[in-house]
Amino acid sequence: MGQAKWQKSSFSGNGPGNDCVEVAGLLNVVMIRESDEPSRSIAASPEAFAVLIRRLKTGESRG
User: What phi-psi label fits residue 55: left (phi over 0), alpha (psi between -120 and 50 degrees) or beta?
Assistant: First the structure.
């Protein structure tokens, strides 16, 4: 597997206390991690990640 290039939102500032969620595309997987805990990440299919983003944008919870 190749090296992931992590990206964070442009809405996140730099400096202490500006932790955020970071994402990286790797092959056919979207990796997701918390910037304050970079050694732990989860993987999702691009389709599942798209569903997550849609639900977050609409405020929809699991149900």
Answer: alpha
DSSP one-letter code for 47: H
Gap between the Cα atoms of 22 and 28, Å rounded: 17
What does the pLDDT look like over 29-58, one tens digit per residue? 999 998 888 899 999 999 999 999 899 889
Query: Is 45 a member of any domain?
Result: yes
Count structural domains, the chain: 1
Measured CA to CA, the distance from residue 43 to residue 28 in angstroms comes to 10
CA distance 23 to 7: 5
* Residue 2, in any domain of the structure: no
* pTM for this model (two decimals): 0.73
Q: Which domain holds residue 49?
A: 7-11+18-58
